[in-house]
Design goal:
about 550 residues; about 30% helix; alpha+beta; FAD-bd_PCMH-like_sf; 7-stranded antiparallel sheet; 5-stranded antiparallel sheet; globular
Amino acid sequence: MFPFLFVVLLSLSWRINASALPVQEFLHCLSLRSPNSSIAKLVYTQNNSSYSSVLKSAAQNFRFTTPSTPTPLAIVTPLHASHIQAAVYCCRKHGLQVRTRSGGHDFEGLSYASAYKVPFVVIDLVNLRSVRVNVEKATAWVESGATVGELYDEIARKSKTLGFPAGICPTLGVGGHLSGGGYGLLFRKYGLGADNVIDARLIDVKGRILDKKSMGEDLFWAIRGGGGGTFGIVLAWKLKLVAVPANVTVFTVRKTLEQNATKLVHRWQSIAHKFPKEMHLSIAIARANSSEDEEKMTIQASFTSTFLGSIDELIPLMEEKFPELGLVKEDCLEMSWAESNLYSFLFLLRSPSETLLNRNQKSSISKTFFKAKSDFVKQPIPESAFEGLWSKFYEDEAKSAIMVFVAFGGKMDEILETEYPYPHRAGNLYTILYTVDWEEKENINSEKFMSWMRRVYNYMTPYVSKSPREAYINYRDLDIGTNKINNRKRSYAKARVWGVKYFKNNFNRLVNVKTIVDPQNFFRHEQSIPPLFLLWKRSDHKKHLSS
């Protein structure tokens, strides 16, 4: 018995030491690459008491914080670009993958977790979050670790008539958001956030810091919408700020099925994209209690809008374009552009701008367990199809489900789909975001919520874009396809399955850029752009590291 026990203990000890070895080698490498810095204090390993709290601090989808989720060997929280350069070098040298996190809003957790059992390191940019606004030139430099809320707050402190066309969720990390495009209240007027990036500073696979000029036209094109975690690590972005009025007008009008919601939704989808560029229009669909009978469930459609103008300008516009909604002056509020983002996201009224700085806001897509998907609609959906859809919201799993329709048109119709990696431009009436979330105690049955989402998505197939069925990279969905992480021979074919859905014909250009800037596919994850050829030998490894 004792010899057997000794063998078991020896085997267990060997496995523990084997798993610890990559961490020790990585830490030793960091110390050699940064001999005069305190980088050791910025690295959290699984033996560190703060490791778990740091890992979960910016994990927005709690599906990827469970004990079964693979976790990083280490988390690096750099203070300087040199710390990132050292981490990239040491990960390459010791065969570790890198995940880069700015705000943790990747819907599938790919900025801090992995669906594959591979050793990886998280580079968390939380300490790199400065925002410098130049009012005279209407520009801003923002580091990737800043949140959209921090960006908006700093802009609002410096100017009441400047804004930026990014998302409404204040906890979005700027780095990931702009890497995938980024749309919000101003996108019908000014395009996406990525459309308004005019320079950037990026650390490439060789550890070089490149700007727009030194990285070249193709790489600069690729990082503005081609998805995060593929081409390098963007340290900071130079943004072109845009003009906004000192006050904008917002409203939310809620209608249930008993109040003609189906006909109103059907009408909205035919006219919303034709409204002036100054108007952002959306509908949130969810289950609710009937206003006529509180014990009866119904469907509620919340029509929300932000208008770059006054109430007195908005009312006649709505009376002309969408009189069926019955908007009246009492439904409307005037507030600053920065406040309108909080209103649109959390329905907060007159919130202090400091609310934008709260990194722990909870919603259906942050600080909860959730699954999401996306679609693009090019033809009006029939009323009968909506009626069939509503029935699915009465199912048990849909108690916290939401569908959000966001109208396109305006500036989006004017930008060619090849101008930036994000291709979903002219021809789209609106986009759909589907979400379903659940509580921690329900996570043991998470598959039933995921199945509900997939049933709804399948139901919608006849009514949305086709060949390909398009999707938005910032609403990442691994259901539509994943890379085979270590299968080099078929990497392009596997990636093309999901790649054309996110990028359409721009996918091939992204692959070409990747092939040039990262031919060994160091920056990779389950849905990263692959290089076209991965024909390299082990003997090339040291040569590549020194280049």
